[in-house]
Write a structure and sequence with these properties.
The structure is a single chain. With about 675 residues, the chain is of the alpha/beta class. The chain folds into three domains: about 220 residues, ANL, N-terminal domain (Rossmann fold, 3-Layer(aba) Sandwich); about 190 residues, ANL, N-terminal domain (Rossmann fold, 3-Layer(aba) Sandwich); about 190 residues, ANL, C-terminal domain (GMP Synthetase, Chain A, domain 3). Helices cover about 40% and strands about 20% of the residues. It is built from 22 helices and 28 strands. The strands form seven sheets. The protein has a five-stranded antiparallel β-sheet with strand order 1-17-18-20-21. Strands 5-4-6-7-8 form a five-stranded parallel β-sheet, with helices on both faces.
Length: about 675
């Protein structure tokens, strides 16, 4: 039965009686103590260094955290202090979070690719006194902003390379801090155990800054209860055990990584592995073969692009075999995995395809051992979602937010639908307002936004419901379907539904399209900005002997416009079959001469489009799209990684795409669209 706006849904998935932790283990330092006692000899952390995987057991992790916490205490870190953590995924940086929490301090992970000014905002706003940085690059940014962050007193570095001649009156090495901790502990036995015992589940565990899709980032304060209870619910739901293993490669400042690579590991006792570097993630993924994998859609898009490029370079026989068996997989792969009826012929063909294509492909991607695979962060294109499930991967979607400690809705095994995010997660209640906004209650609801009571009051209602800002509705099976950000969902001039993210996700299924931004609210039709994927389109151009010297030159090539037009027209043909979205076919488009970049404020650090900012920054381009012009001369400023600025100048071509008549009777389509708008 469908759940109507204004009603409430509560998860009814039963939780197992077997607990993951004793009642006293209500903080991460206490959970570490428990894991060290329960499975002290099992691997807890791995890191690839100089091509070799290093491992630490739970007992060794507990020892490292103990020494670091005592050393930070010697430096003056105490209860209520904030400590910034900056760098790629490293075991020592994860240990820093628990060491700080052991003393009652609050860790504040910072996006490692943030430019100095973004980092300054977080350090200043959070009143940071201590910072732990991975390497010279992060230390340089901290030293640059230190004069404008008067509270910042100490910087601890993990990797000493390049820092020999720096001013060490400000800097301390991670190793030295640990040694100081060992010296202190020798004269003060039992000190840290007493500090850990002072911690309570209601204490602030971490402060994570929101991505800032629609404005300035906010410091979201999450308690141990928020994170531990939510992580335990998630682990039970997916039957995670100490035998599982994950690869931690997403930003530590993102709540998704905090739950999947930290909180659930401390609850379930499984091992977390860190790659050698961002450039080696795919190789490390193949070597490690994780059993539990989590990634935002962008990662899966990149992997699919890699697959498609390799297929284009393959011989005709191999390419034909791949496409034939992928058609079989799309017909029957998900149905076989979910136990649905499939013809004997397709079952036999799928079994042959598993041997010839699917298993070799999963092995190449590093997914041979994956038992559970989640995607979240933003909506994934239905076609892309179906591609991975058709290979036999148990890929599921979840819907969450920082304010929920991730989980709001999630899909159960065997109940996966490509266009929904599932029913409410365990112990989560969801309700819809009359205008379709999704609200929730759960044990993971954040405490407050740091130093921002107004934003807290706007997000949390007096009776504990949290506004997500997303528009959605429940389908007939009680599964939540997210349309878009509530403020982004609009209507075309004729009253038809316009959901830009839905259109953009369909465009981004094509490996040639890295990013898309759709415009159309209040307009006669839909137009789009396109960012090409430099790797995919560059490979395509080289195989056709099309010369280019830069992204800007490649993006302007008429052959590339023809390629992208073909992709857009395929999307339009698909949209014509959707009664809700048939009016939202893309009529005109342009290929931006630069990639959208977080450093330019066009994307968040989690690669979400800042739609309003882009619309304002490129207002002249938007207006040209909705005119009769076939080109526009433009100049735009860009910011480089080292802080310098430059300019891109050139003529941008505007092209037409073919649209298609809606399938079925127009009046039926109009009625269906009206029903969809009412539900949303």
């Amino acid at each position: 039965m469908a759940i109507s706006p204004g009603t409430t849904a509560t998860a009814n998935a039963p939780l197992t009686e077997a607990g993951y932790r004793p009642a006293w283990a209500d903080t991460f330092p206490k959970l570490l103590r428990f894991q060290a006692m329960a499975r002290g000899e099992r691997a807890a952390s791995r890191e690839k260094t100089y091509g070799i995987w290093q491992s630490w057991t739970w007992g060794q992790v507990a020892g490292n955290v103990h020494d670091l916490a005592c050393g930070l205490h010697v430096m003056g870190l105490g209860r209520g202090d904030k400590i910034a953590i900056v760098g790629d995924n490293r075991p020592r940086l994860y240990w820093t979070m628990v060491a700080a929490q052991s003393l009652g301090a609050v860790p504040v992970p910072v996006y490692q690719d943030a430019v100095a000014e973004e980092m300054r905002f977080v350090l200043d706003h959070a009143e940071i006194r201590f910072a732990v940085a991975e390497d010279q690059e992060q230390v340089d940014k901290l030293l640059e902003i230190k004069p404008r962050c008067p509270l910042l007193e100490h910087i601890v570095y993990e990797d000493p390379r390049g820092l020999r001649h720096y001013d060490h009156a400000v800097l301390s090495s991670y190793d030295q801090v640990q040694q100081n901790g060992r010296d202190f502990a020798a004269g003060n036995p039992g000190f840290l155990e007493q500090e850990v015992d002072k911690g309570k589940g209601s204490d602030v565990a971490v402060m994570l800054y929101t991505s800032g899709t629609t404005g300035q980032s906010k410091g979201c304060m999450l308690s141990f209860d928020n994170l531990v209870i939510t992580a335990e619910n998630g682990a039970r739901f997916d039957r995670l055990t100490a035998d599982d293993e994950v690869l931690a490669y997403l930003p530590m400042a993102w709540v998704g990584d905090h739950i999947f690579s930290f909180a659930e590991a401390y609850v379930a006792g499984f091992c977390v592995a860190c790659p050698e570097s961002g450039a080696t993630v795919l190789n490390d993924l193949r070597e490690l073969g994780p059993t539990f994998f989590f990634a935002p859609p962008r990662i899966f898009e990149n992997l699919l692009t890699t697959v498609m490029i390799r297929m284009e370079d393959a011989g005709a026989l191999k390419r034909g075999m791949f496409h034939f068996f992928m058609r079989v997989a799309r017909r029957s792969g998900s149905r076989i995995m979910d136990g649905q009826p499939v013809s004997l012929t397709d079952r036999l063909l799928y079994a042959l395809g598993r041997y010839l294509v699917y298993e070799p492909l999963k092995n190449t991607l590093g997914f041979s051992r994956v038992r559970i695979c989640y995607t979240a962060g933003e909506a994934i294109g239905p076609d892309m979602f179906e591609f991975y499930r058709s290979l036999g991967m148990n890929m599921k979607q979840l819907y969450g937010s920082t304010e929920a400690s991730v989980f709001i809705a999630m899909q159960a095994d065997g109940q996966v639908k490509r266009d929904t995010v599932g029913p409410p997660a365990p112990q989560v209640e969801i309700k819809l307002t009359e205008d379709g906004e999704v609200l929730f209650k759960s044990p993971g609801v954040f405490l407050e936004y740091y130093k921002n009571p107004q934003a807290t009051a706007e997000t949390k209602t007096a009776d504990g419901w949290v506004r997500t800002g997303d528009a959605g509705y429940f389908d007939a099976d009680g599964q939540l379907k997210i349309i878009d950000r509530a403020k982004d969902v609009g209507k075309l001039k004729d009253g038809s539904l316009f959901a830009p993210k839905y259109i953009e996700n369909k465009l981004k299924f094509f490996p040639n399209i890295r990013e898309a931004v759709a415009f159309g609210a209040g307009r006669d039709h839909v137009c789009a900005f396109i960012n090409i994927d430099m790797t995919a389109v560059g490979d395509w151009a080289e195989r056709r002997n099309i010369p280019y010297g830069s992204y800007q030159e490649l993006a302007a090539r008429p052959e590339v416009y023809d390629l992208i037009r073909g992709n857009i027209e395929e999307v339009n043909r698909d949209l014509a079959k959707d009664a809700h979205m048939s009016s939202s076919q893309v009529r005109r488009f342009l290929i931006l001469p630069k990639e959208l970049d977080a450093d330019d404020g066009e994307l968040t650090r989690t690669r979400k489009v800042r739609r309003r900012f882009i619309g304002e920054r490129y207002e002249t381009l938007v207006e040209a799209l909705f005119s009769e012009r076939d080109h526009i001369d433009m100049q735009m400023e860009v910011r480089y990684e080292d802080g310098r600025t430059g300019a891109i100048r050139g003529r941008v071509r505007i092209d037409q795409a073919k649209t298609f008549a809606p399938e079925g009777k127009p009046e039926a389509a109009a009625a269906a669209a009206a029903g969809g708008r009412k539900a949303a």
